[in-house]
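Q: Could you write out the predicted structure for this multi-component system? I'm mainly interested in how the pieces pack against one another.
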Amino acid sequence: MKGYNFAYLDEQTKRMIRRALLKAVAIPGHQVPFGSREMPLPYGWGTGGIQVTASVLGAGDVLKVIDQGADDTTNAVSIRRFFARTAGVRTTTRTADATLIQTRHRIPEKTLRDDQIIVYQVPQPEPLFRLEPSRVETRRMHGLADYGLMHVKLYEDIARFGQISISYDYPVMVNRRHLMSPSPIPAFDNPKMHRMPALQLFGAGREKRIYAIPPWTEVRSLDFDDHPFRAINAARPCGLCGATDAYLDEVVTDDRGGRLFVCSDTDHCAERRAAGHVGEEGLKEAAE
Amino acid sequence: MSQVVLQTDALDKSFTLHLQGGVRIPVLAGVGLDLQASECVVLSGPSGVGKSTLMRSLYGNYRAEAGRILIRHHGAMVDLANANPRTILAIRHETLGYVSQFLRVVPRVPALDVVAEVLIGRGASQEAARQAATDLLLRLNIPRRLHGLPPATFSGGEQQRVNLARGFIGRHPVLLLDEPTASLDAENRSVVVAMINEAKRSGIAIIAICHDTDVRDAIADRLFPLMPLQDAA
Amino acid sequence: MTDDTLLSARGLSLSFGANDALVGVDVDLWPGEMLAVVGESGSGKTTLLNVLSGRLVPDAGAVWYRDPAGKLHDVHAMPAPELRTLHRSDWGFVHQDPKQNLRMNVTAGGNVGERLMAQGARHYGNIREQAIDWLHQVEIDANRVDDLPRTFSGGMLQRLQIARTLVTHPRLVFMDEPTGSLDVSVQARLLDLIRTLVTRLKIAAVLVTHDIGVARLLAHRIMVMQRGRVVETGLTDQVLDDPQHPYTQLLVSSVLQA
């Protein structure tokens, strides 16, 4: 595209971001400040993720962009098209074919490979944000690995609700050292981060922070010995493909309380249906 | 042959009142007292001569100006006058007991526990300590219904009997008694005299201040007279 | 520096501009001993407490702490993480205002359990049990464990602060006027509690107070300060009943007897 550098950002900016990424990879889970640039979309729409993607994208990459697991929502489509136009790279909806995946609020169901990179869009990088308003204090807590406060929060949940009530953006301990916000992915997705073969990069544009988890790193969701972490999901299979171990979205189908539970990961669902799996809804359709 | 358990050597004590222009009041000069196991020495002399001052100095409550106060502690003679605070506290804990003229009340602590604390501090179980304390309070005619109450509301005589119970229960080898029977009626006076004589028989050495001549005659093996000093200008 | 001391300081001096807050102060504290530091406002007693606990750096002098293994540490030469760890485990600090040391939007149980969790306790049931046990020890009704401190009275808040501080069995506790902000009728209960806990747990403590009665009740030894200097130090009952220094005599004679 005329007038723009490859993938929109100038090379100096990419260099700055790559330096931040290297630092982030060297200290898994540690938040690295970076000079977040003005992007052609407002804060809150994925500018952090876009800047990270732009900095690591190469001409030979195959890019997939998902939003809440779907390739076909407005945001996913916009960002994918943005990179297609400014970088001319191949794009795909198939997880298996992608080399670089940018995601908002989900991790694909398919296990990623060690030749893939996943870039997360992060609204609030500070896991202690709601518990300790002072950034000076949270920086000190991270520096001293002083995370008692987060465990107090979990204790409070159990005391109040009988269980830990965090359902998304569930805090994790990376490499046994840094407390990290995994971004607002459902708690169900947390176990996928543990020893993932792919490189995981996180970008927060408005907050101007980058962090990373190198491949094969230990990532543990915080819990208590007698209240262990459980990945919770809707207790039913996907209505379209019958999957029982995928994260489901609840879709309202009519104004009479009709609901359909379908795989949030559209590629995963499509792949299963292509392979012949059919869910209840699909069976109903076939019967009609 | 009884051994010496307490001995003072050229003990001097004076008070300097800085708030009254630095006036110095000498009270004790060159006091040489010795005390043996199983005996009771009663300090005698006119009122204000320094009997209480001597007793408090022996306890370490007043600081001796000069001289030594030797006490047999764990088999060896230790100079209490020049000992550091931790040593003094250790001596008070195991060797030297003191029953002052008035009970200093600790708020909220029941009479029973005021007495039992001494034994609990030595490692006794709460049950055993409270049982011993109960027995002693009953002997001193403090009825059971008062045992659970803090002594602050007791009469002077009742408070003094709690004080005595606390002083005697520890079975310290050396015991200082300041007017032990002052606020007591005849019956309780004889209980205390009996306790003192029992203590003596068990080897405990006692120094007492006692204005009641009958009681003094009943407990004293000898008197130690104190002479008034001339006031310094 | 004697072999046995738990905490020692020599030659502590600190000035705030023209104000000499501390002048050549020496302190020794032995295990299991309670030392009261008394003086009027401006005496430097709170400054001394802050210097001893590492919260303020002196202009001159040093403070040494002997850890459970017997090793000596220079408190002000310690790296910040080490001092912070010390404050969360072996040491405690009881503030005059309990709100300074409590999380007001966290339940009583969470407040007491925090130090345990900071030290790595990871069993919810055990943490809660210990918290309830400690509430019981500070005479707070066990079924307040899930209540927020907002609903507690001043005396209860102070007792909660004490539970929160003592839960990790510190060997050394710094107390800054622990009954200072409480009504007189509530003070007695708190003092009795402190006395019992400190004796039973064999805790060493430095207690700053302007109230001589509190010092007499709680402390083995007493240090009297005037304008940044220590004027007299010794056995509590001896210093209070037979004061030698003119200032001590003034202090003692000024106390009103109830």
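A: Regarding packing and overall arrangement: The helical segments of chain B are 51-59, 85-94, 111-120, 126-139, 144-147, 156-169, 186-201, 213-219.
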